[in-house]
Amino acid sequence: MARVSRKAIDDVRETTAEVLGFGPHDIIFTSGGTEADNLAVAGTVGEGIAVCGATEHHAVLNSVEYVGGRFVRVDRRGLLDLDHLTDVLDESVTVVSVMLVNNESGVVNDLEAIASVVRHHAPAACLHTDAVQALTWLDVAEAAQWVDALSLSGHKFGAPKGVGLLAVRPSVGLSPTLLGGGQEADRRSGTHNTPGIVAMGEALSCAVGERGDLGPRLRLLRDRLADGIAVAGGVHETTSREDRTAGMLQVVVDGVASEALLVLLEQGGVMASAAASCASGALDPSHVLAAMGFDRVAAAGSLRLSLGWCTTADEIDLAIEVIPPAIAQLREQPRSAGS
Questions:
Q1: Tens digit of pLDDT for each residue in 110-127?
Q2: Residue burial 98-121, b: 16+ Cβ < 10 Å; e: rest
Q3: What is the pTM for the complete model shown?
Q4: Are residues 64 and 165 in the same domain?
Q5: Rounded CA gap, 136 and 201, in Å?
């Protein structure tokens, strides 16, 4: 029984490695993207300095903050500021983490350009990318050729929640953060989640196989959605459509509070979030928008709409039907209250 389980895990290790452009022994299975990001930072920083972009997922952002690291600005589009990256790098930096695709805005960073800066100014640093949002949309192996480590979370491409991975090049010295049974070549202890790992392998194969058709189809739906809700007026996309993946639409809505808007949308059958989906219910404005230069008032009106493989044209029609009237209703409330 144990051999059957081990073979199933190793089969996924091989197929995953091929898709990501790593070797089979480079794959470390984790409980998800958060653990993978934490391990990437804490496992490589050592006695040095950690660096990350200001718009990173909190799994990276908080890890870098915890070890007293440095943060890099982004421009108005949400892309990493390479000049500022140059300024914060030196030979004391041991790990640099930059998202491939931002989880709120959907903007895609140029890892080749970032790697060039890191190799020149911090040659000993491990370059890590949080690619959790990328697999459905991009050829991750092509992007990952420039990095030393990469994180994925299975539920972002159809696997159950609670399984993910960190891919690490053999040249990277990685210290474990979980100790115990010595699984994953002593890099991540804990009994393997065999069903989750196998499911992640199947989901990954499906996602890669469907990627060529999915992106163009959803890009059309996303743009129709953006145009449809823009009729409300005062609705601003936070990044250009060319800079981001097909499954993301983030806007800021003038004169509307996100929390109130989300309640009305849910009543109308539209599920959305104000910032990161894993932070649903949070009242603080998006740190991503703040880093991009949006003030607190504008960021308080953020709305994030996600599309996936199961999104249909009828669902887009419903969102276009529900969102503009909801915005109008909230804008009318202060006048009604004062009348």
A1: 999 999 999 999 999 999
A2: bbbbbbbbbbbbebeebbebbeeb
A3: 0.93
A4: yes
A5: 14
Question: Is 310 part of the annotated catalytic residue set?
Answer: no
Q: Which of 52, 126, 206, 278 is catalytic?
A: 278
What are residue 337's phi and psi, to 5 degrees?
-65, -30
Residues in the chain: 339
Q: 272 and 195 in one domain?
A: no
128 and 109 housed in the same domain: yes
Strands (DSSP E) along the chain, which ranges? 27-30, 49-53, 70-72, 93-97, 126-130, 149-153, 164-168, 235-237, 248-253, 302-306
Q: Is 259 helix (H, G, I), strand (E, B) or coil?
A: helix
| pLDDT tens digits for range 288-328 | 999 999 988 888 889 999 999 999 999 999 999 999 999 99
Residues 161 and 55 in one domain: yes
User: Is residue 282 pLDDT above 60, yes or no?
Assistant: no
Residues 70, 200 within the same domain:
yes
State the distance between the two ends of the chain, measured CA to CA, in whole angstroms. 73
Starting at the earlier edge strand, list the strands of the sheet with 70-72.
Answer: 27-30, 164-168, 149-153, 126-130, 93-97, 49-53, 70-72
Cβ neighbours around 314 below 10 Å, total: 8
How many CB atoms neighbour CB 169 within 10 A? 16
Which range, of 123-127, 162-166, 254-258, 272-276, averages the lowest pLDDT? Answer: 272-276
Domain closes at, from 206, 238, 263: 206
Residue 302 near residue 289 (C-beta atoms within 8 A): yes
Domain residues for the domain of 320 are 211-338
